[in-house]
Amino acid sequence: MDDGKIRKMDHSQERRFVESFIVKNRRERLLNMLTTPKKRHEGLSRFCHRAKDLLDPDRIIMEGEDLERRPEFMSFAKAHGEMCLVLSPDPFVDGQLLPFEDAVIQAVMSFDAVLIIGGDFAVVLGEVMKGGRGKYLLSEYK
Fold first, then answer.
1. CB–CB of 92/110 below 8 Å?
2. How far apart are CA 78 and CA 40, in angstroms?
3. CB atoms near residue 6 (< 10 Å)
4. In Å, how far are 106, 115, 138 from 47, measured between CA atoms?
5. What are the tens digits of pLDDT across the range 6-57?
6. pLDDT, tens digit (0-9, with 9 covering 90-100), for 127-138
7. Helix ranges, the chain (H)
8. Cα torsion for 19, 117, 120, 18, to the nearest 10°?
């Protein structure tokens, strides 16, 4: 129950994300955290802080603090205009279903960790910190 509303949570996107982009020995725990309401906020935050250690390196196609400004990323975004699920500890962006480019804009404007899940790709942005912000573009097809 959240803010007086009862809503049924469909965790198929989270499940698909974990199975596609997370290293095998970390999948079960992360999936549990992302699909358990009381653990979800902490799970998203913790995941994005340790994304580099948890992501399958074979699925990372681009990374870096300037990710969203790179021409290759912009081309990828234009070619993938589909609706994406946005997950974040930030309640303003969490749970939104947005076109990919709009999801990236929302994610970049948020200071919190953000996970954008598309059809066969995902974007992970860590929380804004003094040392920078990890950003990763992932694809099921490298």
1. yes
2. 31
3. 6
4. 19, 10, 15
5. 334 678 889 999 999 999 999 999 999 988 889 888 888 888 778 888 999 9
6. 777 667 889 999
7. 12-21, 27-35, 37-49, 51-54, 71-79, 100-109
8. -10
